[in-house]
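Journal club side-thread
Mid-discussion, someone asked how the predicted structure for our own chain would compare to the paper's figures. Pasting it here so we can look after the session.
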Amino acid sequence: MEKTATLIKPQAMIFDMDGTLFQTETLLLPAYHKLFDILREEGHHEGETPAEELILGCLGMLLEDIWKKVIPDASPAAHNRANELLLQLELEGLSNEAAVLYPEVKETLEELHRRGVRLFVASNGLEDYVKGIAQARGLMPLFEGVYSAGEHGTATKVDLVRLLLDQHDIKDAWMVGDRSSDVEAGKENGQTVIGCRYAGFGEDQELKGSDVVIHSFSQLLKLHDQAE
C-alpha cells in the first residue's frame, strides 16, 4: 500500500467495475475471440484477430473509442456490430463460473456496507453489462446506485461521477479505480482517490495523482479503519 495523504472517513465509496471489482479478462477474452470469428463469418473483418493486448489496453475507455483502437480501419457498420456482439457474448459468458471478481471483493464490500458506507459503481461500460455483472455475482443489493456511461450518456467519467454525487447529495467520497480516468474523475470532482494496482492493465503512470495506491482490494478495510 502506497499512501501519500491522511484520509477522512467517507460518506460513500464509488467503484469502477472493470479491473477494480471484476477480473474483466476472465469474461472479455473468450468473448473477444468469439466476436472476431463472427465478424469474419459476416464479412466485417478479414485476417487474424487483433492481439489480446490491444483490447486489454483499452479497458476503462468508452466502447466507441475501443473499436477505433482495436480495428481502426473497419467500417462504422463493423464497429456497431462489434458493440452488439460483445455485449451479447459477455452477458452469455456471465453464466460461466470462470468469469470472476477479484479476491475478497464481495466480502470487503459486505463489510463496508455493514459499517454504513454508501456504495456505488461508476463505469464507462454499457448499462446491461455493468448491471449484469453486479447481478450475476450477487453484488447488486450492496450498491445504492450502479451508474454507467451507457445508461446516462456521459462523455467522460468526470461527468458520470459528478452526476452520481449530485443525485445522491454526496460531499465526501472515495473514488476507487485502476485507470487514469478514475483518478481524473475523483480529483476533478474534489474527492479522494484510491488507486488499484492489482489488475495490471495500465501503464506505470496510470495512477499518478492517487491519494493512496492499494495492491489488494481488501486493503480498503485497513484504510477505512485508519481514516479519521
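Post-session note: The longest strand covers residues 118-123.
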